[in-house]
């Protein structure tokens, strides 16, 4: 339990009220977007509406098997974006009211289009390959599909910092100086090889503060938001980097990628079993598994399984983040500055340091700021008692 007695010392009443107000203003819209997406998936997947959609849009392009798969996939992606877009726009508008947004609506629209293009570029060939596999082996397609899903998870994890991150941000090496030297020395002292220290131009979108370590082996780099560099003290930047190095030290990215690959491989046979269940196929208006009109059903089942697994994924993420916090404390030995850094991040990001426990358990990927500060104080007390 977070030490609520220290609340007044860590945050002013105005800061606490501001964080709570932002959470209360954004959360209904964020949850609404997720529920709207699930509702759309359910309507299209568990009724004949999805089959009708696939048949109709496939007919626009000749009505062939490939046309139904590709056009149906594109329709699902675009409809999904269209349904969630008003909710995302509202979340953005609320964030802008609290000074967290620096990007104009036109820039945001370009990002939405870019993200949609990436989703289409990934989803369409995957759907075509999957249904080709199903057509070739209707009973055993899930075996090679499971292996392909695992390999794809690994490939995307490796390619993300090299291909996808540069689509949305520009990166430049942190100039030579005391901070760059300190960050590289921190990594060296931690026994971690880092290729470079990069600055992301986050300020063109947000005032939020952040940093992370991405990549594997020769592609690994420390990435710092330019907002963090211009706002935080150098020692605070080091502590944020130390937390991120904790993820590398404990192989969190590699472990997460491995677990993600295993999870993807395990989900495929579950989806295959559900997709072959006759009552579901009948409800979805699909003749059989290889019928492209089963595509909305497959998407709905995947979305439902993903939603059900979210609390478990969040719980695992919070444990990983707490361990990275402990690593930062042990690497730097500076609990007091760590607490100051957590306070600065919470205030700058307009976070609620003490959200309702249910919200944290179900949705949060990180421990609340209050819990992180309390853990740092406990670590410091234990250290001083030794």
TrEMBL record:
Domain Peptidase M48: 175-379
GO molecular function: metallopeptidase activity
Keyword annotations: Hydrolase, Membrane, Metal-binding, Metalloprotease, Protease, Transmembrane, Transmembrane helix, Zinc
Pfam family, one: Peptidase_M48_N
Cofactor comment text: Binds 1 zinc ion per subunit.
UniProt-listed Enzyme Commission number(s): 3.4.24.-
InterPro entries per UniProt: Peptidase_M48, Peptidase_M48_N
Family, as annotated: Belongs to the peptidase M48 family.
PANTHER family: CAAX PRENYL PROTEASE 1
Name of the molecule in the record: M48 family metalloprotease
Originating species: Kitasatospora phosalacinea
């Amino acid at each position: 339990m977070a030490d609520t007695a220290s609340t007044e010392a860590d945050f002013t009443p105005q800061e606490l009220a501001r964080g709570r107000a932002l959470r209360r203003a954004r959360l209904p819209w964020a949850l609404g977007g997720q529920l709207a997406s699930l509702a759309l998936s359910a309507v299209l997947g568990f009724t004949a509406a999805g089959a009708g959609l696939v048949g109709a849009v496939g007919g626009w392009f000749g009505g062939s098997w490939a046309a139904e798969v590709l056009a149906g996939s594109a329709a699902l992606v675009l409809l999904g974006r269209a349904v969630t877009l008003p909710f995302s726009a509202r979340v953005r508008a609320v964030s802008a009211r609290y000074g967290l947004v620096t990007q104009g609506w036109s820039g945001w629209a370009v990002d939405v289009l870019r993200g949609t293009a990436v989703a289409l570029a990934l989803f369409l060939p995957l759907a075509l390959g999957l249904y080709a596999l199903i057509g070739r082996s209707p009973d055993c397609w899930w075996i090679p599909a499971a292996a392909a899903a695992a390999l794809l998870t690994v490939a995307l994890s490796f390619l993300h910092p090299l291909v996808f991150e540069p689509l949305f941000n520009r990166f430049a090496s942190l100039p030579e100086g005391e901070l760059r030297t300190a960050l590289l020395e921190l990594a060296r002292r931690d026994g971690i090889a880092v290729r470079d220290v990069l600055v992301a131009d986050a300020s063109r979108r947000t005032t939020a503060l952040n940093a992370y370590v991405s990549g594997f082996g020769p592609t690994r780099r420390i990435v710092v938001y330019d907002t963090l560099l211009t706002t935080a003290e150098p020692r605070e930047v080091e502590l944020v980097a130390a937390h991120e190095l904790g993820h590398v030290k404990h192989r969190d990215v590699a472990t997460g990628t491995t677990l993600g690959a295993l999870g993807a491989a395990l989900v495929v046979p579950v989806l295959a079993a559900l997709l072959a269940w006759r009552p579901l196929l009948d409800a979805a208006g699909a003749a059989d598994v290889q019928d492209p009109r089963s595509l909305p059903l497959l998407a709905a089942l995947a979305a439902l399984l993903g939603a059900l697994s979210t609390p478990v994924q969040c719980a695992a993420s919070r444990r990983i983040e707490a361990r990275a916090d402990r690593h930062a404390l042990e690497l730097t030995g500076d609990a007091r500055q760590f607490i100051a850094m957590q306070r600065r991040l919470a205030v700058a990001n307009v976070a609620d340091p003490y959200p309702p426990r249910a919200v944290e358990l179900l949705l949060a990927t990180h421990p609340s700021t209050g819990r992180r500060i309390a853990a740092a104080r406990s670590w410091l007390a234990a250290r001083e008692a030794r």
